[in-house]
Design a protein that fits this description.
mainly alpha, 18 helices, binds carboxymethyl coenzyme *A, 3-stranded antiparallel sheet
């Protein structure tokens, strides 16, 4: 029988702490630790800290398992679309036909943005990174919407983020703004808003639509990752959802998080240009005096393999083959993966390719420029961010306010008359 209590001996005294059980894992509830013992816990990076109870996604990093609402990612990829996955993540169950129709229609209902947002975008210099633009424009939505019901905010964001992403891309490449097409699917519309050229007829390509749909699904949620934690952090202070998602986008931009997808392709191109000497670059990544890290390798939770990376690799191989692209970067990526997985440093530290290692190759095949890769990740992660915000509100989680170990000066007086 499982015990519900753990017994700690601290400085000779015994203290009892309750155990919290989840579906697959367990934690020690230390809510009263400080009040009983004067100690706090010290866990930089929150590597060992459960911050909430959640039923959205589950990762078993040792076994390489990822579940969305209990369903394995491998099944979702085969059987669901991104929009069904978004419904699942937000609502807990897969939609029936009527629910899916209603969900899609509601998104289309909010498929437009205030004209003044186009003017704001016009004023942003072209050299700004698309993630900075997306985060700013998402935040600006707070000024263009009166008080909204939570339920409507989800639809507003699912409808408007693709428009903002497409506008950002089109401004960068000098295309006029495009508008949503209500008659096609969510991902087809996203692609059309990106690539539609006014004086040319637009042809949908199912290979591209399917690859992007899959990539968005792979990104849809990933439990308490850095950007989701950011969204929850803001939500815990009762900030509004647009502000929280805008902050989530900023966190995602970081190179150790979603920004890794851009960094991977940049790294692979540099390796290729410098002659493709893989050993030299692996040695650099292993050298502790060199800040270089093998981008797209390693993960806080996955210590065996990242199931998303396995699927992304197949999608990358497929799209490159189907579109008849000869991509030396894909070949280099596969060689690099093989060599790194044989290397004792990567083996001992359990460093495997993560989702970002292959996603850039897919985006490039689709025609999306490097500095837009993380924007695409954000579009995929949106349902996860919103589901966590929703869950946090339903759970009535307290405001997030960690403690610290203060190492500054002791109290002193200013020596000045
Ligand atoms: N290349 C070389 N060494 C590495 C790498 C790497 N990519 N990743 C980790 N290590 C080493 C690290 O130096 C450390 O060595 P030591 O124990 O000797 O100090 C050890 O492995 C553990 O690394 P860590 O940084 O303490 O692990 P973490 O859990 O804090 O960081 C990570 C996880 C993803 C930030 C890290 O592996 C990394 O920087 N990877 C490259 C960036 C990347 O691909 N990020 C995308 C993550 S997946 C998508 C997402 O969630 O956004």
């Amino acid at each position: 029988m499982c015990s519900n209590i753990v017994d700690f001996k601290i400085n000779g005294c015994h203290y009892k702490f309750p155990i919290v059980y989840g579906t697959y894992n367990k934690a020690i509830n230390i809510a009263h630790l400080r009040e009983n013992t004067e100690f706090i816990t010290f866990d930089p990076g929150l590597k060992n800290t459960g911050v909430t109870k959640s039923s959205i996604s589950f990762i078993d990093g040792e076994k390489g398992i990822l579940l969305y609402r209990g369903y394995p990612i491998e099944q979702i990829i085969k059987k669901c679309s991104f929009i069904e996955t978004s419904y699942l993540i937000l609502n807990g169950e897969l939609p029936n036909t009527a629910q899916l129709k209603h969900f899609s229609e509601k998104i289309k209902e909010f498929n437009c943005i205030n004209q003044n947002i186009y003017k704001i975008l016009d004023e942003i210099p072209n050299f700004c990174h698309p993630m900075g633009i997306l985060s700013s424009l998402t935040y600006i939505l707070t000024s263009f919407t009166n008080y909204l019901k939570d339920e409507d905010m989800y639809f507003h964001l699912l409808a408007k983020l693709p428009i903002l992403a497409a506008l950002t891309y089109r401004k960068k490449v000098g295309l006029p703004p495009s508008y949503p097409d209500k008659n096609i699917s969510y991902v087809s519309n996203l692609l059309k808003m990106f690539f539609y050229i006014p004086n040319k007829s637009y042809q949908q390509n199912t290979i591209i639509t399917d690859a992007l749909d899959k990539l968005l699904i792979l990104h849809a949620d990933h439990e308490q990752n850095c950007s989701t934690t950011t969204v929850r952090l803001l939500g815990s202070a009762h900030a509004d959802l647009f502000s929280a998602v805008s902050a989530g986008i900023s966190a995602l931009w970081g190179r150790l998080h979603g920004g890794a997808n851009q960094a991977v392709i940049e790294m692979l191109e540099v390796i290729l240009k410098s002659g493709g000497n893989i050993k030299k670059w692996l040695d650099k990544a292993k050298n502790k005096k060199d800040p270089f890290r093998l981008m797209g390798f390693g993960h806080r939770i996955y210590k065996n393999f990242d199931p998303r990376a396995k699927i992304a690799k197949k999608v990358a191989e497929n799209i490159v083959k189907e579109l008849n692209i000869s991509d030396p970067v894909l070949e280099l990526a596969k060689n690099l993966e093989e060599k790194a997985l044989q290397d004792s440093y990567f083996k001992e530290k359990k460093l495997y390719p993560n989702i970002d290692f292959y996603s850039g190759i897919i985006y490039q095949a689709i025609g999306i420029p490097k500095d837009m890769f993380t924007v695409m990740f954000a579009l995929g992660r949106l349902p996860g961010w919103m589901a966590h915000w929703k869950e946090m509100k339903l759970n009535m989680d307290p405001i997030v306010r960690p403690r610290q170990i203060y190492i500054g000066n002791k109290k002193r007086n200013i020596q000045k008359n």
